[in-house]
Amino acid sequence: MPLLVRTASLTKYSQIARSIGIDPVRTLRAAGVDPSCLSMPDLRIPEASLARVFEVSAHQGGGSLGVRIGEAWKLADFGALSLFLQHQPTLRDVLAQIECYRHLLSDSVAVHVEEIDDVAVLHVALLTGRPHPGPEMVELAVGAVFSLVRAMLGSNYLPRSVHFAHAAPASLEVHRRFFGQRVEFDSECDGIVLARQDLDRANPLADAHLAHYARELLDLQPRYQQESLADNVRRTLHILLPRGQGAIEPVSARLGLTPRTLQRQLEQTGMRFSALLNEVRASLAIRYLTQPRHSVSDVADLLGFSELSAFSRWFSGEFRQAPSHWRGAFFERGTNGSLAPYPANHSGH
């Protein structure tokens, strides 16, 4: 099943593309997307189709479109979920409900809250089936989450820092205008760092009665497709594996299941946890190996291998070459202007 996303991003895209000289109708047609999506925010399209729109736009000079759309994002752009979110008592509650009702927004995006001392990190992960989601897609997702944070904490709220794993663009003007001065690239994760206490700051607009009413309306909303347990596991692994929590116990706990129940339910759909772990490892391995700041040893550690030799054996079994050889060939292709993001003998989800 394709990963689906709401077309609300494209209604925002339409306005912003025109402002920088891009014809949104022509661009959508070139990307193979029906232009009616530009005016209908609650349709569902494959995530890959939205990514193609950004790719075509980039060739037309549409830089920083993702963060521009994130900057323009409002609470109302969360569609049917907006009223319910507006009346949650705290940001912590909002983020929990976003996960509960993700099927109304995006099959692709997951947000995980990590709390360390007086700091909270909002990790934003994208499940796309591609080894690289693309910087525009990541910046759009982080931007939408940041707009949600501002909806709860105030329109002028600034986080401690905002992080992106990809390299910095040529200009940071739009990023700093939106996120503030502390925007860091080539980071260990994509996400937002804020004071832990901000998670529990009281929302003065919260109304429990309206929240209850909004939930009743939400529960009447149709599901566009049956939620996939395997995709939920993939999303969770994308977040937890680099944090050293790729075993079945923390993954099942985040999904509200016991390890035995998770394994049994996966087996009923013809899947195994170990196969999904292997799949996510393969995707993340390629993503990390294409980032020069990570040594091969770093990649092994991020993927949960205690020994570099174990990672090398696993990678060679998956891709029929050592990780160092694959990385060398990748960057050689890059200098020749021909980037191939995934080994020819291995395919992503």
TrEMBL record:
Q: Which organism was this protein described from?
A: Paraburkholderia bannensis
- GO terms under cellular component: cytosol
The HTH araC/xylS-type domain sits at 231-329
Q: Name one Pfam family in it.
A: Arabinose_bd
UniProt protein name: AraC-like DNA-binding protein
For this UniProt record, give its keywords in alphabetical order, as a comma-separated list: DNA-binding, Transcription, Transcription regulation
Organism lineage reads as: Bacteria, Pseudomonadati, Pseudomonadota, Betaproteobacteria, Burkholderiales
Which PANTHER family does the record match to this protein? HTH-TYPE TRANSCRIPTIONAL REGULATOR GADX
Q: Give a yes or no for keyword DNA-binding in this entry.
A: yes
- A GO term, aspect molecular function: DNA-binding transcription factor activity
Q: Which InterPro entries does the UniProt entry name for this protein?
A: AraC-type_N (IPR032687), Homeodomain-like_sf (IPR009057), HTH_AraC (IPR018060)
